[in-house]
Design goal:
Blueprint lengths: L3 E5 L4 E5 L2 E5 L3 H13 L2 E4 L10 H13 L18 E5 L9 H4 L6
Parallel strand pairs: 1-4, 1-5
Antiparallel strand pairs: 2-3
The structure holds flavin mononucleotide (FMN).
Length: 111
């Protein structure tokens, strides 16, 4: 049977939703990852940065913007994720500073 990995990055705390800033107890992408897991089964892996992003939305956006200008990339927590064990990888992440997050998360480098 094919083995599925659902790897996601998500952020709890303040987020801009429907025109206003709200406090999320569970990030949107985490909810989506759980829903996909209900359909596909397999393993779920949360991608985390070594230094967590702040809870406050604007602080978060400003920090991420300065990282963007500096072409800095967040360091990810090293985990013993063995990609070779999987046939299918589903990657989930929000838009960060108006961009897709795959380059920031350096995740594909692990493949
Ligand atoms: C580093 C970082 C940068 C973000 N930048 C923006 C942004 O520029 N504009 C925005 O509307 N939301 C921004 N967000 C919020 C995310 O798009 C998303 O709504 C939020 O992280 C909540 O849910 P999710 O991460 O599970 O999708 C940012 C989040 C993070 C962690």
């Amino acid at each position: 049977m094919k083995k599925v990995l659902i790897a996601y990055f998500s952020h709890e705390g303040e987020a801009y939703v429907g025109g206003k800033i709200v406090k999320l107890k569970i990030g949107n992408t985490r909810v989506a990852a759980q829903m996909i897991h209900g359909l596909t089964g397999g393993d779920v892996f949360r991608i985390e940065t070594e230094k967590p992003y702040p809870d406050e939305h604007m602080e978060n956006v400003e920090l991420a913007k300065s990282e963007q200008y500096a072409k800095a990339r967040p360091v990810l927590k090293a985990d013993a994720l063995k990609m070779d064990d999987y046939d299918t990888v589903i990657l989930g992440y929000p838009k960060l500073v108006g961009r897709y997050a795959d380059d920031r998360l350096q995740f594909f480098g692990k493949l």
